[in-house]
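Hello Y.,

Per our agreement to keep a running log of every chain we model this quarter, I'm adding this entry. I've kept the format consistent with earlier entries: sequence first, then predicted structure.
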Amino acid sequence: MMLIFGLMLLLLQTAACLDQLCTFDEPYSIKQCYAALGHKLSLQMMLNPSYTELDLYKTLNDGSTLNVFSINKNKKYNYESIRDISELLKNLTLIINTHEFIRNRSEFFFDNMTLTINNVTRADSGRYTSFVVEIDMLMKSDLQVIVEAPIGSVEVSIICSSNQTTVFCSSEGDQFIYSWTLNGKILEEGPMFGNSSIDLDEGTDGNISCSVKNNVSHAQKTIRLKPCPVSLVFVLVWCLQLMVLLGLLGAFHIYMRHTSGNKQEDQKLRMRRLREGHEHTAEDS
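Predicted structure for the entry above:
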């Protein structure tokens, strides 16, 4: 039971960390805001209690604008007599409109002036502009929302060759990069950094970790890396080469013995003929 509860808590923590909060806190500027596909995106408005109108627009691909969300307050209310914002929100008449593309999956929280969009889709990407009217002043702020798919499960595999070990890493998600560690040491030099595979010496031993991350999430997997076993094919090829070499050495040895024997026979024949020639010469004299 405790194990199941622990797993559920871990899943809840994982899901919660994928919910993103972006704030319209820099007037007349554009900030980047990353949202996780399928999770929550909260857009917080930085407002004073004296605001009278709030409009949130989205710029479409064709350049036109879409009124995503708007609030109009009772402009005749005396803001200066209110000290508690909760009292202000309780007594004011609020007219709220949300566009149909988020109406069924969004909610607005007046305590922190935040619009939360649930189950974010890729269509939610784009440039959002906040217009706030405060008595006689208009403030504008922009957020560029970028939706990315969160990192899925990370898989690590190993392939051994004759002189090296290749480790592969794969995952699901958008715009992610890889990083590697071996026995706690970061491998960030040369072609290893940012690649989905690395080449190591065949005798490399230890714990190797592949980390995958993008702007909304990250994941990691660690496996035990052992020296690659000697390949049976390699052993057979080595034995065959050794047999061929021994065969060549044996043939060369036989050839040398045969050649040496023939030379000795030729030398004996020449010596015998030489002796016979001396004997015939002595008889004639």
